């Protein structure tokens, strides 16, 4: 190898391979930002390489997080590309797929270019922006899907707003199909779920909070599946959180529709009871579900029916959370807690590490058509080194996000990111 | 005496012995009120602020009278009109009031959990006078005292709660209180006005009023809010009255000595026949109002006692 090449050798690693679904000792050679070679078992470092001794810790592809809200433009006091980028690096997220539900919404090539420029300047990780599916996320007219795609939009979504007009939605899906553009939707019957703060049931009634039946999610999914059958579009469900929606998803996949599904890590690890005495940091959209629902979606994840785990990172300032529950804003930050929260499922023996990581690496990469998310030659060297067992108690004040609205404040967690690399360059070194 | 709370936010956190303690004290206040025995020393020198973010005449008057009978300095603040419109947050309002150093804060708010939130930000005793669809503890306590005085006990009674359970904080607090005191609770109403998950509440649910009222000791009617009446939750007022309004024919299914209750204000001819409401042999509605003052006196007395012991011995004024 010539002098001009930058070569890094990751020695003594426990390789978590989301493609082969293996977990074992190995080593990895990175040259010029790309993975060059993967070694099964111990291997000798090339003479001129920088050696990273992994100390037997887990080496895996960096996480790809679909649905990160960076509050630029509009609410930079909640989160900027700089703060989100640092939080992502610390959390092992090497690709943030950002949401367009900003102020204003990212619905023109011009605003998209602004986002790309800000990301380029300030974020150390890859930022792939999504654009709105309809103008202003109003659900009335589709955006310039072609121009936006040319400008770099990787997917089209109105985020947590459902396009309730089926005519508008079916046309947008049809138009997107012609461009092979990915559409991401929030499945929810919009009228039934209007005004809801929690999932209906005993807890909602005891707290006197407006609830939505978990059935509203299935109704939304059923509608969208019908529209996919009609239009043939490529569709990803942002979050499937209820047991009752799973059979419909399974059937749609079996019938060959181009549908995939994600879930936020909070819905995999928390349930409605965590809201307890009106703790607004647990107010999410969709709301946290019953324990039965949580167990069902964890199983669906382990079986591969649910493809993707996201942080659904949603920064909110203290003012928008320190309100009566119904009035408080929804959402939680998650870039830095995505991995340790997801590892709770591994520590509870509900899923093995390669399958867990696949939902945060290979699967989102496949859905978005990225080369990342794999430990294979020629894949970009977006890597994380982590100790899955390291215990810690989360103190929200230590988060790098500008907003500290995490439901895990004070929680005992396991799993620390020791290092994060993007294109072979180290951007984070953890304790 | 056992009543170990800083605030009275709901029935959920009260132990049955605490409920009994409070009712015993309220019972004696009720007797003294009738005899005209004054207790102006109990809350003398204390400031009570009534903060009502939602319209109320009866509850506010009841709290005001209770405070005055015990010698507190009472101030009423109608919050719908003032700072909310100016965009002040609930917590800022709380902090502002807290700086005025009140001793007792009586709060009603249209959002569930709002009183709880406010109580975390102040260092005086907070009494929940109704928060959204969550709790209305003093109403449940005054209902309990009324039942206990009419029936001679507050356990092993069969009690029907009828009407709009879903939107009622009165129903929630009553279900909890009467359940804790080991009564049989029946909920009667159209399924559109039943809260979700009701099967897990340890109550019996009836859609047919006559079957539900069979052999009960207490019939508790709830107010049907105007905005729920037309089309949304029930087809019409007249169909509701026909199926769920309490009249003599339906009441005949209850025990012959069953009492009729209503938290007020009543919609005569919607949820209750005027003749039943006025029947002095059956209706204890006026007694409920009377017990309301006594229960609120007892609650404020107990909270003030706890506050005094928490604050330690008072400085001697020279």
Specify the oligomeric state.
heterodimer
Q: Report the top-level CATH class of the largest domain in chain A.
A: Alpha Beta
Question: How many distinct beta strands of chain B?
Answer: 9
Helical element count of chain A?
13
Structural class of chain A: alpha/beta
Strand percentage of chain B: 5-15%
Number of helices of chain B: 11
- CATH homologous group name of the largest domain in chain A: Metal-dependent hydrolases
Examine the secondary-structure arrangement and name the CATH architecture of the largest domain in chain A: Alpha-Beta Barrel
Major β-sheet of chain A, in short?
Answer: 8 strands, mixed
Radius of gyration of chain B: 20 Å
Question: Mean pLDDT of chain A, rounded to whole units?
Answer: 96
Proportion in helices of chain B: 25-40%
Strand content of chain A: 15-25%
Poorly predicted parts of chain A = none
State the distance separating the first and last CA atoms of chain A.
33 Å
Number of domains in the coordinates of chain A?
Answer: 2
Percent range for helical residues of chain A? 25-40%
In brief, what are we looking at here?
Chain A is an alpha/beta fold and 431 residues long. Chain A contains 13 helices and 18 strands.
